[in-house]
Amino acid sequence: MTEPKTRATGKRRFLASVAVAALAGLGVGYTLSAAASPSPSPAAVEAASSTARPTAPVQMTAWSQPRNLADLVEQVSPAVVQITATGHLGNSFEFSSNGPIPPEMFDGPFGDFFRRFFDEPNGPQGGDGRNRPRFRSPETAALGSGFIINRDGVIVTNNHVVNGADTFKVKLKDGREFDAKLLGTDDRTDLAVLKIKANEPLPTVDWGDSDRIRVGDPVFAVGAPFGLQGTVTSGIVSARGRDIGAGPYDDFIQIDAPINRGNSGGPLFDAAGHVVGVNTAIVSPTGGSVGIGFSIPSDMAKSVVSQIVAHGSVERGWLGVSIQSVSQDMADSLGLKKAKGAIVADVTDGSPAAKAGVKEGDIIIKYDGKDIDSAVDLSRAVANTPAGQRADITVYRDGREQTLAARIDKLKDTGKQANAGPSRSGANPTYNGLGLALDEQDGQVVVSDIDPDSKAADTGLQPGDAILSINQKKVATVKEAENAIREAKSKNRPSVLARVERGDQQTFIAIPFAKS
Prior knowledge:
Helices cover 15% and strands 32% of the residues. It is of the alpha+beta class. It has three domains: 1-26 and 67-92 and 136-314, Beta Barrel (Thrombin, subunit H), CATH 2.40.10; 317-410, Roll (Pdz3 Domain), CATH 2.30.42; 436-512, PDZ domain (Pdz3 Domain, Roll). Strand 23 (390-397) and strand 24 (400-407) form a beta hairpin. The protein is elongated, with a radius of gyration of 29 Å.
């Protein structure tokens, strides 16, 4: 793992810690130990389980491991490479000196030393003539893995393997080494593309279909953990669609095939030897594999890599909404049967969403005909929509569904600034059925106080928060807010769904009613 900025530093934590599987530095220390135990024979397992079988025969599906993994490894491993990314990740700095270094010192026996660390007057370093000592940050190297996807030398790896580096070396299984050029990166998906030139066609691997991968399917990884090139590990798909907080489009394949530092950027293969993932991160309290690894699905990687190869960057669609997933408490507040969809917390002025008629409080349940289960689903779907393309958006609003048409723009950075002022609560606040004391300030309903014994105190609400809407209805006065609260209580709702603004952030919070 590299220092200081990349995900290879291990500074990102998930559970015990989520560490990207890249290796920093060229010196590696490790120990090898035997940790095997005998397994019972198939006959013994058969005998032990026979007494527990029901009298009627049960139809079972066979477990289809590759018949000979060695044959597949021989086919695909020549295209898996080790990557060494080297660079000065810090800035150069200077020390003051009492006077210039005599010019003759640059021509003496220690000339190389002085030319390296001091400004030589009129020298190739463009010194200012003051001969001040200059020191660069130490050079660091990150070790990772990658794989060749075409005979021209295009290589896929992780962004955190190459991020901040100046030079890139690629080593093939047959021992050949090449200087590589960085074609482009995408930090949102942690992917990068390198290119090498060779005098003859290079070995390649083919993309597979990650959408067809199921939990329990056999997979295997090839890479260079701890610099041990050509290491093969195998296991199964443990889960799909994992969101580990690495980026806005998280959709990781979770595997139990051991991957470690140095595996980052390496391929995950299916039982047919096709690449279905790019190994990226591990959960590790110790820095080593504990059987929980994460791979970027090939269907996502293919799209990103093709754009980087063609344009050097990635273009994504933009709708112009701030969203969050619908929790069960939110669903209960609105009378929804299932906690599905993405609720709109804010709509950017002039955005495709605003032009289409999307409103704050809308729950987007379908996008372009596909069901939306969470905010991540919607983010990925919009990102994959080309700019200028029309998309139908189905929203749940005021108890019914309606479909809106939006023309997607190119992703850009934008934000809407807002401010909720300080509370102006009185000395003896009056709490409503939610345990909140409300006030009006600058045309907004503001929380002036919270009953410490109410459930509202556990929601994260704070005095000064502005309540913009309740159960998808905008409120600008305390009277409107209280009417909306009474209406929800009359329908026997367990809580109300409030759109809350704090500073320049908006979010939805389900606020339970106090028990009477």
